[in-house]
Amino acid sequence: MTVTVRVPAKVNVQLAVGAVRPDGFHDLANVFLAVGLYDEVTVAPADELRVTCSGPGADQVPLDRSNLAARAALALANRTGRVPHVHLHIAKDIPVAGGMAGGSADGAGALLACDALWGTGATRAELLELAAALGSDVPFSLVGGAALGTGRGERLRELPVGGAFHWVFALADGGLSTPAVYREFDRLAAGRDEPVPPPVASGALLTALRDGDPTALAATLGNDLQPAALSLYPSLADTLATGTKAGALAALVSGSGPTTAFLTADATAARTVADALLDSGTCRAARVAQAPAPGATVLG
Ligand code: C5P
Questions:
Q1: Residue 157 and residue 216: Cα distance in Å, rounded?
Q2: Same domain, yes or no: 172 and 84
Q3: What is the CATH number of the domain that holds 232?
Q4: Average pLDDT, the chain
């Protein structure tokens, strides 16, 4: 028997970052939107815990117990008294180390797939609690749609979304390490006179999401990690400018980057922006995707 789970990528339409906490994390007001780029995690019984990976960037994915999918299987087995002898296969389509929660998606996918394989009977609340222990973005990968994440991003309130949003994602060469981008955020904050304000979700942004209004959403998008990502990866500024010139309503770094995200008016505009980005040579690839997308889903 095997179980396959499909899990979406995310873009942060607002990522408000507070000062660093004593535990090293940052308090966030993090508005997640799941987008239609997916990884698939397949689990099957095996003699020992094993992880394999295929697809773009698969060679950069660790296959040991640092992989969030492996850690998810171990955590669920530990919680429910099972032996974690499974083969987890990750079919990647979400950019690796791209700021689109690909690793978190694999953790959420493995959690749900192992839960279905083993028939643990764990409640949704228990799965969400295990997900939060695996990483700040893992609960959202389970839930999908749109949600406001507070705390370090793991405490979720689901948000209504009134229509489809059309996005383009420009993939960059190489990746950015999330901890390194947060460290750069701290370094830039230390150089300023004012303290970092507490993170607050934008009411106008939540309204734009609820109304399904891309122009209003474009006016309110924001990512406090963007200056840090640009500081570590300056050429992303050229990618952002290219997409804007080609007609995107707004352009921003996705999460901790280096993927850049472009909100467009409709599917036709998205194709135009994707073509312009590819032609410009300022990115490695451009992908079109719609949002919102459902959270982790068992396919069979
Ligand atoms: O929770 P997760 O393992 O995904 O976080 C990866 C890293 O990102 C953390 O070790 C920390 O450096 C940084 N981070 C943070 N504040 C958050 C979330 C992540 O500083 N709210």
A1: 21
A2: no
A3: 3.30.70.890
A4: 97
